[in-house]
Amino acid sequence: MKVKCPECGAEFDVPDDVIVGEVVTCPDCGLELEVAKIEAGNVELKPVQVAGEDWGE
Amino acid sequence: MQQKTFVVKIGGSILKSGFPESFLKDLKSLYEHDKVVLVHGGADLVTQTAKAMGKEQKFIVSPDGMRSRYTDKETMEVYTMVMAGKINKQLVAWLQSYGIRAVGVSGVDGFLLRAIRKKKLIVLDERGRKIAIDGGYTGKIEAVNKEFLEALLNLRYLPVVAPIAMDDEYQLLNVDSDRAAAYIAGALKADAIVICTDVEGVIIGETVRRKMSVEEAKKNLEVIGHGMKKKVYAAVEALQMGVKEVVITSGLKEEPMTQALNHEVGTLIVYE
Question: Which residues contact A20 (CB under 8 A, 6 or more apart)?
Fold first, then answer.
């Protein structure tokens, strides 16, 4: 499936079995993007917001 | 001789069959000459207790290979109970039985550890693909109230810290104890951290590395196992925050801290 990076506008492919919550990386700007919605074959992406690594005990 | 400041991290793996007497004796001798903060872990006991209460624990792996507990609300309650309750208070009692003026605190007390809650965690799913999930109750430490610790240390108390932090909404968070030790040591500009575990140091291949620079430590993160990776990561952070040296060593040996600080055992990691 074709998707568009919301940051840089680059178009790229994601696997057909992609699911909501999955994280993909824009090949152009390198931004990590989370699949926010899949509707009628349209995949909506949003940047993933995470604080730095700290994973508790 | 000028007093030095040391942070000692004791892993739960060492405490499985009580507090080793050699460790207690050595901690006492360190405490008699210098300022010491003890940070403890205890993840295994949290898992056991949660299981006994009918709450199975889920573990997740980050894309960087960090393995950790998925802390939902109920798990956070068990975590607080075990860490700030059973483990922390038992340690304080053991230390006091040795004549050490120990005070048990968690990162919540006196605003000791402030953290930012992770809104999302990225984990690998069963297909090996990255998935963003709700962050649960874990956090990244942002600030340490060093004045609180310094006040206790100046009164000749030995603070025993449970790895729980608080976010800006006063929510309790599970934070990694090695990282907590690193941030506390960084804030105090400690002379050293001794991370005591149940193996002799950082093992690469089949050999215990005696000394590593920050660059070597970073370069080898990929080949170091899950549990040790967090310690090495914490060591690098501590050194970057101004701690002079970090030794990762076995807490089950005779005089574990003294020998580690004399560079006779363990893996010494320094900024060079």
Answer: A35, A36, A37, A38
